[in-house]
Design a protein that fits this description.
The protein has 350 residues and is an alpha/beta fold. The protein is built from eleven helices and 15 strands. The protein is globular and about 60 Å long. About 1% of the residues have low confidence. Bound molecules: threonylcarbamoyladenylate (TXA) and magnesium ion.
């Protein structure tokens, strides 16, 4: 299979591209497309065969359910058994990077929800995603468009890196805006639960849902109600070593020492930090990936997955990265970094 790349303007995508790709989706073909978070790999959510093709292309385990993407609030009621009040409280974030888990209706095939009695839904804000779903005329089930356990794609090139030759088409709408996935909130139980920290901060969700249950991110997935969070995720091929604790200066010092040791042992090393902090590694034989301006978490989020991929392409064996405080988007960054590190956490300053 050859993968066609359909380039569009992110703000004003050409109608004929959306119509063509939308018709392909409707008849059961897969389309990778940009959203404001990361690129998704879409299928007609009402077509079980198309949904199974998504799992096959990604090599995704069958027990990990997909998010259903909708263009309009009026498309939601047919998909769910009931609409709790909390949905209305969160509608302030729509369209946007917030996903809710609700009790599903019989209309949603079990292939989409991996047999769960609930369905995850979101209304993307990206003009290409919205235009595509509207053109398809059906809800679009879409996971992130990466191969199993690779970092989520934030540009069409990332999608091709993982799925070239495995899917018929990708719409290229440039870089995504947030760079990390949507925030997932489970509204199917007694109290709302933050299942996945994402592009909208837990604090922002809490301000609309004061009884939101959040628990600190756990690297080994002990208490996750979200099946996808149990599997290895967001990982570069290189081993990621995450330096946590202490002050930023203490972390930088510890990183520098460790990096010098690894280089001396003949290991190819990559360092992923804000530009200013990378200066401390001047003159060292490492590959570098910047996370933007120091202290600007939005920039780090936008660059995180691309940085992991770039360091993989540079052929490094170890990536050194610095942890974040669990505040705002920092919680999301720390969650993704902990998963990528798979337990290789180095505590500093204690
Ligand atoms: O930003 C995003 O959410 C992107 C874009 C493409 O929309 N999508 C995305 O999909 O990140 P995916 O499949 O990579 O992650 C979806 C997460 C998984 O952790 C999955 O287990 C969880 O949502 N999920 C889906 N349906 C669920 C359900 N019914 N109950 C609990 N968790 C669910
Ligand atoms: Mg994913």
């Amino acid at each position: 299979m050859r993968t066609r790349v359909l380039a569009v303007d992110a703000e004003h995508p050409a109608e004929e591209v959306l119509q063509e790709a939308g018709a392909a989706l409707r008849r059961g073909e897969l389309v990778a497309f940009p959203t404001e978070t990361v690129y998704g790999l879409g299928a007609n959510a009402f077509d079980p065969r198309a949904v199974r093709a998504v799992f096959a292309a990604k090599e995704r385990p069958w027990n990990d359910p997909l998010i259903v993407h909708l263009a309009d609030m009026s498309d939601l009621p047919p998909l769910v058994a009931r609409l709790p009040d909390a949905v209305h409280a969160l509608a302030a974030f729509w369209p946007g990077p917030l996903t809710v888990v609700l009790e599903k209706s019989a209309r949603v095939p079990e292939e989409v929800t991996a047999g769960l009695p609930t369905v995850a839904v979101r209304f993307p804000a990206h003009p290409v995603a919205r235009g595509l779903i509207e053109a398809a005329g059906v809800p679009v089930a879409a996971p992130s468009a990466n191969r199993l356990s690779r970092p989520s794609p934030t540009c069409a090139q990332d999608v091709l890196e993982d799925l070239d030759g495995r899917i018929p088409r990708v719409i290229d709408g440039g870089r995504t805006v947030y760079g990390v996935e949507s925030t997932v909130v489970d509204l199917s139980g007694e109290r709302p639960v933050l299942l996945r920290p994402g592009a909208i901060s837990a604090e922002d969700v809490s301000s609309h849902l004061p009884d939101l249950v959040t628990s600190p991110p756990a690297p080994n997935g002990e208490a996750f109600a979200s099946p996808g969070l149990l599997t290895r995720h967001y990982s570069p091929r290189a081993r990621l070593a995450l330096f946590v604790g202490g002050t930023a200066a203490e972390r930088a010092g510890a990183m520098k020492q460790a990096v010098a040791r690894w280089i001396a042992a003949g290991t190819r090393v990559g360092v992923m930090l804000p530009s200013e902090q990378l200066l401390a590694f001047d003159g060292m034989a490492i590959s570098r990936a910047t996370l933007g301006r120091s202290g600007v978490v939005e920039e780090a989020a936008r660059r995180l997955f691309g940085a992991m991929r770039a360091l993989d392409r540079a052929g490094v064996e170890v990536i050194a990265a610095s942890g974040y405080d669990l505040e705002g988007l920092g919680r999301t960054l720390q969650d993704r970094l902990l998963r990528a590190a798979e337990g290789r956490v180095i505590a500093v300053g204690r």
